[in-house]
Design goal:
This protein is α+β, with helices and mostly antiparallel strands. It has helices at about 30-45, 50-70, 110-120; strands spanning about 5-10, 20-25, 75-85, 90-95, 120-130, 130-140. A six-stranded antiparallel beta sheet has the order 1-2-3-4-6-5, covered by helices on one side.
Amino acid sequence: MGTSRNVTVANGERGGTSGTSLQMTLRAESDSVGEARRAVSGFAGEHGADADDVALAVSEGVSNAVIHAFRDREPGRIDVRALVDGDRVVVSIADDGVGVSPNPQSPGLGLGLALIGSLSEGVELRRTPGHGTTLVMRFPRET
């Protein structure tokens, strides 16, 4: 599937106009974690959010999708989006995997979502049966 990245800029300007967005479609593989982290933290930093907080949260979110979403099946797709929404940068990470469920064979400590919650202003986890999971995170902007 490879990687594709589109950057859509509202009104032809950078600088935080509401609606400015970044969209990426990635394969669910470990190399995608760093690619998403770099792109989204760069976007967030350009638009007034804390790039370090965003980088760590995106790493956790994409890692969770890579590790957990495709158990017992071939790796699928991860869609990553970042959007300027008024005084926030909203980041979503969506997979087309099996959804959220406990994984006793997980290599981690199970603290990823708690960490994401501590780094962001708000976090939401949506599960759509048969269509995977979407993680939505909101980060404040300094305007």
